[in-house]
Design brief:
By secondary structure, the chain is α/β, with parallel strands linked by helices. It is built from 19 helices and 13 strands.
């Protein structure tokens, strides 16, 4: 019956004739698992890990199954409110991850944790990879959450500039007496929202003026890529240092002025097309790739109601939430400015910690993640997992402080330390949610990583190009399998462990033959979808 439906579809689309006959024949040539056509008639020798270097694989298109999204969970109330204004699941994910990045930026140097022997703050670097009309414009809403902080800083700059101009005018009126008087210094041009529509040097100066803090939020990543095209190496270094809270410095050639910030707390929130990713991060092996959280989003499949009966627009709603974000920031600033308590060696930062059980859960999860991916995508991708661990810890920090917002007093002069404590223990649900986010984003990063790898020769025939060994492994895998099943079947077939795991990585991230369902758990895509997709690809060429 299904075959008859396909035939009818083909005749309807092609109007019968030779094209239709060829397409019909192609239908019969498909095996039940979307069989690949091979250039190589004989199996190559595969005794070491480099034996498959010459395999020719098509780049293929996106997987048949969509990448996972964030689940429903017990999120902090302020995040639940932000997500409630999403018009699609895609926009919901954008708002959640975007809000986490923006909130982390506002916490900058005021919140910290000990991670791998170094104090870290919740500053994230996030990149939404999406085609046009996919909902990534939601980032413009995220900007509204932090604009009150930006506006207050700009107001202070305006007041300082007025005072500076007055002092400068008085100084110039001194005449000869100026030699005995120190000239007034122009105040730094501080801001919180740092525009990417600038030169690389200009952006660097803005970061310096802001004492290493702030948020770069751009809905089109090529804005940044164009700005730094002539000084890429230096800018890439700046972003890497920002992620690690390292020292940032530079020399101004015009007046030979040396400037530095001992620790940088910059967050980055970008969106752009896959081509814009490559413009900013030309290689998957680039250290910048492993520092970003990537989310690949698609065009929504359903139309949403564009006519709202709400009394306020989404912009107005986000502005109202921005006032709450501003209050969190003011409490953090107030807490920082308080005198340290007796016997306390550091200032009143909010110190974030995990319990011993939570630490064990965290380490166990990322240990298993490294084991799962190290052979699938290679050692270069393992660097992304290591840094994802830090980003996950930072997300847990943001979630904890966001919950603390519910207990704050309305008085902006009252510090967080007077309402809660300078030490916060992570809640179990916040760590669980952070790990769930990490697991989702890892799959997105794996897909984008695969697209940034050097392309190999594409197959001009119908289907996917697999090596004989790869195809034989796929044939022997059950519909649902795990990593141990792969290793067991691979051993029986004489396929080395690293090679078998690499094949699974290609099934998932390059060919769309399988999807990941859990940590080390996989499932083949439905046969009908695979056949249908291949037929539609063929129809497009007719």
């Amino acid at each position: 019956m299904e075959e008859y439906a396909y035939k009818s579809f083909l005749y309807e689309q092609l109007g019968g004739g030779e094209k239709c006959k060829n397409a019909e024949n192609a239908l019969h040539n498909f095996s039940t698992h979307r069989r690949a056509y091979n250039k190589e008639e004989e199996e190559e020798n595969d005794n070491d890990e480099n034996a498959n270097a010459s395999e020719e694989l098509s780049t293929d298109s996106d997987p048949l199954q969509p990448l996972p999204t964030f689940p429903e969970a017990d999120w902090p109330k302020i995040l639940m409110l932000i997500m409630s204004y999403a018009t699609s699941p895609t926009q919901r994910d954008i708002l959640l991850l975007g809000a986490l990045t923006a909130l982390g930026a506002t916490m900058e140097r005021y919140v910290r944790c000990s991670y791998s022997g170094k104090y870290q703050s919740p500053c994230l670097q996030t990149f939404f990879v999406a085609p046009p009309a996919s909902g990534k414009s939601g980032l413009s809403l995220i900007r509204l959450l932090v604009e009150p902080i930006h506006d207050k800083i700009r107001q202070q700059v305006d007041e300082e500039m007025k005072a500076y101009r007055k002092e400068k005018k008085n100084y110039e009126l001194l005449g000869k007496e100026r030699v005995n008087t120190e000239a007034p210094q122009m105040p730094p041009n501080k801001m919180f929202l740092i525009s990417g529509n600038n030169s690389g040097t200009g952006i660097l100066q803005n970061i310096m003026d802001a004492n290493g803090t702030g948020l770069i939020c751009e809905t089109e990543a090529d804005t940044i890529a164009s700005a730094i095209s002539s000084e890429y190496g230096h800018w890439s270094d700046t972003l890497r240092k920002a992620f690690d809270h390292d020292r940032l410095s530079y020399n101004r050639r015009t007046d030979q002025e040396y400037r530095e910030v001992k620790r940088i707390f910059l967050a980055v929130l970008l969106s752009g097309t896959p081509a814009q990713v490559r413009a900013l991060i030309p290689s998957a092996e680039n250290g910048l790739f492993s520092r970003f959280l990537f989310m690949k989003v698609d065009i929504p499949a359903k139309w949403h109601n564009v006519f709202s009966k709400a009394k306020r627009t989404i912009d107005e709603e986000m502005e109202a939430i921005g006032k709450r974000v501003f209050r969190i920031h003011q409490h953090l600033v107030a807490s920082k400015s308080m005198k340290p308590k007796t016997g306390q060696s550091y200032s009143n930062d909010i110190l974030f910690e995990l319990t011993d059980a939570q630490g064990e859960q965290f380490n166990k999860y990322f240990e298993s993640l490294v084991e799962e991916y190290k052979n699938m995508l290679g050692r270069d991708f393992v660097a992304s997992i290591y840094r994802l661990g830090l980003s996950t810890f930072r997300i847990a920090m943001v979630l904890s402080i966001a919950r603390l917002e519910e207990t704050l007093s309305e008085s902006p002069t009252t510090s967080i330390s007077e309402n809660a404590t300078t030490s916060i223990i992570c809640r179990d649900e916040d760590l669980d949610n952070a790990i769930t986010i990490a697991d989702t984003l890892m799959q997105h990063a794996a897909k984008i990583f695969a697209t940034l790898m050097p392309n190999k020769e594409e197959d001009g025939t119908l289907g996917i190009k697999l090596s004989p060994k790869s195809e034989r492994l796929f044939e022997n895998l059950p519909d649902k399998f795990n990593r141990q099943t792969v290793l067991s079947i691979g051993k029986k077939l004489g396929i080395p462990q690293r090679t078998a795991e690499k094949y699974v990585g290609e099934y998932v991230n390059k060919h769309g033959l399988c999807k990941r369902t859990g940590n080390g758990e996989y499932e083949k895509v439905k046969q009908q979808n695979a056949d249908e997709r291949s037929l539609l690809q063929m129809l497009g060429k007719c």
